[in-house]
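Why do we care about 3D structure at all? Because function follows from shape, and shape follows, mostly, from sequence. That is the central idea of this module. The next example makes it concrete: a single protein chain, its amino acid sequence, and then its structure expressed as tokens.
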Amino acid sequence: MSNITKEAVMDLREKTGAGLIDCKRALTETNGDLEEAISILRKKGVASAAKKAGREAGEGIISQAISEDHKKGILVEVNCETDFVAKNEDFIAFSKEIAVALLSDENVDLENKRIEQVGKIGENIKINRSRSISSSGIVESYVHTGGKVAVLLSLESTEGNLDSNESLSCLAKDLCMHIAATSPICVSRDDVSEESISKEKDIALAQAEGKPPQAVEKIVSGKLDKYSSTACLLEQPFVKDPDLTVVELIKKTSSDSGNELKVGQFIRFQVGEET
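And the structure:
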């Protein structure tokens, strides 16, 4: 039997919302394998799906930069040692400078700038990660809660190039805010991996064990639909108007604007998340 630490139990509890005893038993059963323990808890119906974001594990902020024509954008996570420094104006300005530099050239050498900032701030600083989106449509962003969460999204037209205007920019920004709040893992069902579907189906079958065969089919189908409505951006209720799904909102704006719109892709960063 593996030695299950208190920290591992608390980590599993934080990710699933299950009780301490259930978490410890699941970890013991899986010899400390966190992902397998999550699956066991979900099959028993005592845990919800693990959150994509994971547990925050560091201080810092996320900065963004977008080109003037809104055809390209970038998110950058810059980490420091304390929350005090993360709120420092010099550190915030440095993080923004890094985002702007990487938007122009993602291969630029920033080590000298980082070392200079370390000497100025007095804490170790790490340029942790960056990701960009380029699009024939428009790219918008949203930065939430003091730079702890940020989203980058491309809004495109099925007919080709799409130029930015107030209505489309507003929609794209609203979708970014929605993603920041709801943490979808993909745009649509087409983007869900076969591995994820198979895993969710196994969990649903385990939860339906002992039911009549005809009931099992309905239960599994319902569980998979619920998973998709949570995981897929287009199927989620829009946070600013829950009577509309995101895809219905996009269709409405498409009709009003005369463009057939679609979400190209999105990126969601959270400071300290496990990647």
